[in-house]
UniProtKB/TrEMBL annotation:
A GO CC annotation given for this chain: MCM complex
Enzyme class: hydrolase
Any single biological process term in GO: double-strand break repair via break-induced replication
Entry protein name: DNA replication licensing factor MCM5
Organism, as annotated: Hemiselmis tepida
Catalytic activity: ATP + H2O = ADP + phosphate + H(+)
Keywords carried by this UniProt record: ATP-binding, Cell cycle, DNA replication, DNA-binding, Helicase, Hydrolase, Nucleotide-binding, Nucleus
Keyword Cell cycle appears in the UniProt entry: yes
UniProt subcellular location: Nucleus
Residue ranges occupied by any MCM C-terminal AAA(+) ATPase domain in the UniProt entry: 397-603
């Protein structure tokens, strides 16, 4: 049968079935009776091999048969009637191709061999014996068996997938010969297609991919609850009771119920001439066939979204054995047919008819496993593994690694070391009772403005294999965790994951953490410690994974860190959230002339282009990212006995130092068992940096030192100096600050030495306290030094 092509050059499917009329002259028939096809014409049509002898008339454009018109066109004893003929089934070439593909696939299932095994034949037998009527096929195996068949699957999956499933059903039926009872129906077998090819980016999908097999990777952000979809619909005429069965297109496709019944009922005279009328059909749900169907919403991975762009997403349609396998937050590779969804609304012009929304009708789904769902063993070649292990064995590698973290930022060596530990992470553990201990490290940077906190966050976002960057002011509890969305069309509720779900297995960078609302910060408590998010809303009760590290940056309560205030007053966070951070850094903008000169010189070099980022021993960011993936995937260190004993002694000593801190209300950061687990995680991350399977005493010592320089230092921050840690010292400093304000008016300048002596003699405040209060007020910008530091002037 010849295929037709429209003026755009695209292939148009032949009519199946197609009813055509051929005008011809036939003997007169009785009035009131329809003229049927004469035997002579049918014989003539057969003798001509089915060719359409139409005497030059375009039969595709002839009007349909009308009995009234036929009766009115009689002349000279003859009626000018219409002859009907129809083409049933597929076109000749199309039918042959489908049949050949079915035959090839049947041979593939039976004969494909790996060594001495027949994997697909054995898999089909094993699955059907368990009641799972499915067959998972790897496209690369089809390529090895028949490259032409592989290409046809990729180019025409809509045509060949039904043929493949029929072939699998035939093979299964052949296996049941002798075991199947007479009349027993053989169930349909679903063919699930997977592939190990590199997935295509969502931004690369276009109109040329329509009706082809594509492979797309992304993260599931929403999953509707499973529903049933009809595959065949049984309809019955209300008048003549005729039952017909209509096939429903897969995916989001549907079928059209005919408005006219071809049957007839007896009229008053007993003749079968009375038509059934318009819209006589009703659907018989009990006699229709159904399959399970689920709709997923998949978004491109955060690391694939260009800067400044909105992430793309696509809708997936899953059916039968693919339903219920994927939860929100999972990283998947979807193998499916790129199609367009039919318009649901009524036509509102040419645009609604011409513009359609694409979706993916899945024929296979693979959940990607490994580091955060992104890495597998196949991603590391033997050469790459050898290079990484050789790099680790070099002298000074650890220092080079730390220097490779944000090399454009001057200083902050301890923070860079901690960020390197966060990238590596500790080892996750699962206890015998099923409980899970997190291995991810959470870090909080609390400090003055202009101390490179946001730049450090931006670097980690680029260096981490999986990362999401967000700002506290623009983040809500639902945006960080998960939200329940109501679908406009059906009114059903489904889950949509937030930033911490999207960054599962990676790092969430939250800037301006102090600008978040308190109720939004509380929402991430569970996500930070238990690494799950429990949802119980709108009838949806589920738990999502948030196996991610949190890197947060915040400013102190007063904008800058105030030395006149203790740690409790400077850190405006509850102890419940602070205890969940493994490391807390206080970053100060200290006024030091030598340090300021080095920083200024470094910044000038950066802006003038004189600074070389590729310093000696530095690891470029792509290599760093690959090494982090490799270390997290290949190394899972555990604490040694000596390291455990050393850590136990250190923890007890830290607890003893802070035993009385909570009694006077000066305890800002709690030292609890969580801090013990934090040091364990830091020790494991330090061991993972060198690909060591055991965290030794040396790693524990480095972890304890890092903990002392961060969290323990932050917990003891406040008024510094000998004898200045007691409540009485705080009271005296506040008194000295009050006296200075009373003695020096706004805009006044007084000698510093005279001021200190005057307040010490008149107000009973020690000269050391007055000098400390002056230093703090100068740091806050309330006072300033003049005349080479001999005078102090009050600015505000």
């Amino acid at each position: 049968m010849t295929q037709h092509h429209d003026h755009h050059g695209s292939r148009r499917q032949p009519y199946s079935p197609r009813v055509v009329q051929i005008p011809c002259s036939v003997p007169a028939v009785a009035r009131g009776q329809s003229a049927g096809p004469p035997k002579s014409f049918i014989q003539f049509f057969s003798r001509n091999g089915g060719k359409k002898a139409t005497s030059g008339v375009m039969i595709d454009h002839l009007p349909f048969w009308d009995d009234g018109l036929a009766r009115e066109s009689a002349m000279s004893g003859y009626d000018e009637g219409n002859v009907y003929w129809s083409e049933q089934g597929l076109a000749e070439n199309q039918g042959t191709a489908a049949q050949m593909a079915e035959k090839k696939f049947r041979e593939f299932i039976r004969n494909f061999q790996v060594g001495e095994e027949f994997p697909y034949r054995d898999q089909l037998r094993k699955n059907t014996n368990k009641g799972d009527y499915k067959l998972e096929v790897l496209l690369e195996d089809v390529m090895k068996y028949d490259s032409k068949l592989h290409d046809e699957i990729k180019d025409r999956p809509s045509d060949l997938m039904p043929a493949f499933e029929k072939a699998a059903k035939d093979v299964h039926a052949a296996m049941l010969v002798g075991r199947r009872e007479e009349g027993e129906i053989v169930p349909d077998v679903q063919v699930i297609v997977t592939s190990s090819v590199i997935p295509k980016g969502m931004r690369d999908l276009n109109a040329l991919d329509y009706s082809t097999l594509v492979h797309v990777q992304g993260i599931v952000i929403a999953a509707q609850k499973p529903r049933v979809k009809a595959t065949t619909i049984a309809i019955q005429c209300k008048t003549c009771k005729t039952i017909r069965r209509l096939n429903v297109r897969p995916g989001f496709g549907s079928c059209t119920i005919p408005r006219i019944c071809e049957g007839a009922v007896a009229d008053e005279g007993g003749d079968m001439n009375k038509k059934c009328g318009v819209d006589p059909f009703v659907v018989l749900p009990d006699k229709s066939n159904y399959v399970d169907q689920q709709v997923l919403k998949v978004q491109e991975l955060p690391e694939h979204v260009p800067t400044g762009e909105m992430p793309r997403n696509i809708i997936l349609s899953l059916d039968r054995h693919l339903v219920g396998r994927i939860a929100p937050g999972a990283i998947i590779c979807a193998h499916g047919i790129f199609q367009i969804s039919p318009s649901k609304a009524k036509s509102q012009g040419a645009m609604s008819v011409a513009v359609k929304s694409p979706y993916l009708r899945c024929v296979g789904v693979t959940e990607v496993t490994g580091v955060g769902g992104r890495m597998t063993d196949a991603d590391f070649t033997p050469e790459e593994e050898t290079r990484f292990r050789s790099m680790v064995s070099q002298a000074g590698f650890v220092d080079r690694l730390y220097k490779s973290v944000a090399p454009a930022i001057f200083g902050h060596d301890n923070i860079k070391k901690a960020l390197a530990c966060q990238l590596m992470g500790g080892a996750r553990k699962r206890l015998p009772d099923g409980a899970r201990l997190r291995g991810d490290i959470n870090i909080l940077m609390l400090g003055d403005p202009s101390t490179a906190k946001s730049q450090l966050l931006k670097f980690i976002e680029k260096a981490a294999p999986i990362s999401v960057y967000t700002s506290g002011k623009g983040s809500s509890a639902a945006g960080l965790t998960a939200s329940v969305i109501k679908e406009p069309g059906t009114g059903e509720f489904f889950l949509e994951g937030g930033a911490m779900v999207l960054a599962d297995g990676g790092v969430v960078c939250i800037d301006e953490f102090d600008k978040m609302r308190q109720e939004d910060r509380v929402a991430i408590h569970e996500a930070m410690e238990q690494q799950t998010i429990s949802i119980a809303k709108a009838g949806i009760t589920t738990v999502l994974n948030t196996r991610t590290s949190v890197l947060a940056a915040a400013n102190p309560t007063f904008g800058r860190y105030d030395d006149m205030k203790n740690a409790v007053e400077n850190i405006d966070f509850q102890s419940t959230i602070l205890s969940r951070f493994d490391l807390i850094f206080i970053i100060r903008d200290e006024r030091n002339e030598a340090k300021d000169q080095r920083i200024a010189r470094h910044i000038m070099d950066l802006h003038s282009g004189n600074a070389t980022n590729d310093v000696e021993g530095e690891i470029d960011i792509e290599t760093l990212k690959r090494f982090v993936c490799f270390a997290r995937h290949k190394c899972s260190p555990r604490l040694s006995e000596g390291g455990a004993k050393r850590l136990q002694d250190e923890y007890i000593a830290i607890r003893q130092r802070y035993a009385g801190a909570g009694e006077d209300g000066q305890k800002a950061i709690p030292i609890t068992v969580r801090q013990l687990e934090a040091i364990i995680r830091i020790s494991e991350s330090l061991a993972r940096t060198t690909l060591s399977p055991v965290a030794t005493e040396r790693h524990v010592e480095q972890a304890v030192q890092l903990f002392k320089e961060s969290t323990e230092d932050a917990a003891s921050r406040g008024v510094q100096g000998e004898g200045m840690g007691s409540p009485e010292a705080f009271a005296e400093l506040n008194k000295a600050e009050k006296c200075i304000r009373e003695r020096v008016g706004v805009g006044m300048s007084v000698p510093e030495q005279a001021l200190c002596q005057d307040l010490s003699s008149r107000n009973g405040v020690s000269e050391a306290s007055v000098r400390k209060a002056l230093a703090v007020m100068i740091q806050r910008g309330e006072m300033e030094l003049r005349s080479q530091g001999r005078y102090v002037c009050r600015k505000r």
